[in-house]
Each structure stands twice: as C-alpha cells, then as structure tokens.
Write a structure and sequence with these properties.
By secondary structure, this protein is an alpha+beta fold. The chain is 21% helix and 40% strand. The chain has 2 domains: 120 residues, Diaminopimelate Epimerase, Chain A, domain 1 (Roll); 130 residues, Roll (Diaminopimelate Epimerase, Chain A, domain 1), CATH 3.10.310. It is built from 6 helices and 18 strands. Strand 7 and strand 8 form a beta hairpin. The chain is globular and about 55 Å long.
Length: 280
Amino acid sequence: MKIPFTKYCANGNDFIAIDNRRRLLSGEERAWITALCDRRRGVGADGLLLVESSETADFHMRIFNPDGSEAFMCGNGARACAQFARELKLCDRETAFSTRAGLQRVEFRQESSLLRLGDIRRETELSAELEASAAFVAAIRPAQFLGYLRAGVPHCVLNTEHAAELDLARIGSAARHWPAFGDEGSNVILVERRDAGNLIVRAWEKGVEAETEGCGTGCVAVAVLLREQGLVQLPVTCHMPGGPLVVELLDGQWAFSGSIHRSFEGRCTAPANASSAFSD
C-alpha cells in the first residue's frame, strides 16, 4: 500500500506533505515518520506536514520533526504547507489555517510567500535566569546570550561577530538541552549583525538535532530582539545558508517572506496501521 506525497523546499528547509483530511494517519506513527525523513533510507526531509480538515479555518496543519515528535509550529513548514493546500484547491491568493501554535496566515507572491505570525511571547524571567547563569554563559562561549522568546516555537538567540566560524554543533547541542528549557528544549539561533538591514543567521533546530539551512521563526526572533535594542531597521534581510528571508512588521504583526517551490511528487510505503484508503 502506497501513500502519495509532495516534496517542497522553502529557503533550504525541505518537507514532505501529505493530504490527511480523511485522517488516514493518526500522527502516532513515530518510527515510520523517522524512517520517512531519513536522508539515506527514506525520502529525506526536515519534517513531515499533514494537511487536515478544520471547521474554523481553511485547513489545519500538523508538523512532525525528523525524530517523529510533533512540533507546535515551523515558519518555513507553514509556508510549504500553505503551498500544498493551495495546490489542493483549499485556498487561492492567501490562506488562514490553524496550528498547535494558533492561527497562521500566508500570502502568496509570484515566486515566494509571506507568513504572518501569531503572538510573539517574550520569556523575560527565563531570559534573566540564563543571562545570570555562569554555566550557561560558559557553555555558549564565545557567543553571547541575546534573549529567549517564542515565535510559535522557542528560540534561544545568541549574538556573535563571527557566525560562520563558530562551532554551532557544539554550542547548539549544549544549549538546546539546557535544563531551564525543560523537556521541550529550544532551538538555538546564532546571529551576526552586518548592518542595520542585513543579518547573518544560523539555526540549530530541536527535533532535527542538527543545523538547518533555514528557520523563518528564528529570523523573526532575531529581528524582534535586535529591534528592541535599536540595532536593525525593518524590513531586515536575514541571510541563511538556504537563502535570504526578509522580516518585517505589517499592521503591527511580525511577518517574514522567502522562496518556496515544489521539488517532486511520489509515493511512499504506508505504515502498518494506515487506512486501506491509501492504495496504488
């Protein structure tokens, strides 16, 4: 039995998208999701996207990390999922859809799309705790702690003058599991300010447990923190390995835009518990 899927790339992040409006997958197929996202033995991806029905929005998005865990949100994943939904005829030039992190909105452009994020939540007490922790400061050295906030998902943002030279694997894996973040952990974002309109950004993503080429919500987190210090002017371009992401404020709402394209379509072997409605 085979499941049809579509593969998308959004600024270097790649995702497998599946139409799950008939609830053929439960989301509990953790080992299957991990195998599917494996880059040597499966299709390979930074995550799995499921489009499901919603009574209050155009559709509902679920996103799963390569380790099989379900995430609350992913900016580039949301843009990829919106593109998939558009091709399923669930929306046209723009869409509003539900996620575990709340309602998200995407506007489609000629070769890109723009995501308007929901609430940005500052975690001031936790930020103060991290800043005062000598052990944490030592673990992230030579980077410096800039702040911690939630832009759909948690981001620990670190400042550096030499982003390309830092050992992000060491710093990211240490900070990502820091006890203060609890069981959920946090993404770790490195930022180097080139000037008021250009930033160099690198991301270590939890669930992926590796550096990824793009992280839209991480770029928003960086822009929020640096703007509070008067160090950026909006819109600001965040240069990541997967390409530039532009962060801006639209009607008081944080948003970012970047490239999006469909890579290919295919069929994958269904998990043992999948509905027989998936067929060749």
